[in-house]
Amino acid sequence: MAKQTNYIAKTPDANGVINYSEEEHSVWSDLFKQQQANIQQYAADVYLDGLEKLAMPDDRIPQCDEISRHLEPLTGWSVAPVPALISFGRFFKTLSEKTFPAASFIRSRADFDYIKEPDIFHEIFGHTPLLTDPSFAYFSETIGKIGLQVEPSDYSWLIRLYWFTIEFGLLKQNGIYKALGSGLNSSPTELIYSVDSPVPERREFNVIDILRTPYRIDIHQPIYYVIDKIDDLLQVAERDLQSDIKKAQSLGLFENTFIPMNETKRTA
């Protein structure tokens, strides 16, 4: 992952606490309150259930330890602060250890509606509710373990599976599209777009196809993959994903549906 960011990571003090300014807390509060109305309409139930279980504050940025105290008894996962952009190797290692690496800064008002980099709102509000679900948590851990087994040249292939499920996956719930991925549920604009807009293509979930699908980090996605139920991720986790990657590589990438760009960053 390229280590280029417009933000400076927050560093915990001697007590492990990250100190945020009143303005930073205010940004969190406004994002949280804005998303509440949207997620009730557009988010999948598994996400909404997880958000309720974590009981995160709406008026201030929570500390990672606060979230971990709610999360660990449910699935054994915890959350730890990291710089905004970390290497694929470090990213996969933390997932394999059931630790979610959370960027510690929060976006500015200028980036309120859309930020390319993962900030604390995306990480905590978007990701951690899903980690309360055992199927989703196990799938996330599996991605990390496979990432430690493959060659660095395979990273960009594996990360597409992460991108089109954990970040931007859709779920078919009672015959209706619902947002599953963290990149959707933390986005004021793409959450609605992913479900309601006639512009993007919504494809049936297929691991090999996902591994072959290019993506961009700086636009609303032109393609979403849809799973039928959250437990389908358990079946994906039990696949021979290394063989799937080799098969996808032999078939090659699908043709871009957009102008290509460097795929070296994980982002919101």
UniProtKB/TrEMBL annotation:
Entry keyword annotation includes Signal: no
Biopterin-dependent aromatic amino acid hydroxylase family profile domain location: 1-268
Residues that bind Fe cation: 122, 127, 167
Entry-linked PROSITE patterns: BH4_AAA_HYDROXYL_2 (PS51410)
GO MF entry, a single one: iron ion binding
Cofactor(s) named in the record: Fe(2+)
EC number, as in UniProt: 1.14.16.1
Alphabetic keyword roster: Iron, Metal-binding, Monooxygenase, Oxidoreductase, Phenylalanine catabolism
Keyword Phosphoprotein among UniProt keywords: no
GO biological process: L-phenylalanine catabolic process
Family from the record: Belongs to the biopterin-dependent aromatic amino acid hydroxylase family.
NCBIfam families assigned: Phe4hydrox_mono, PRK11913.1-2
UniProt protein name: phenylalanine 4-monooxygenase
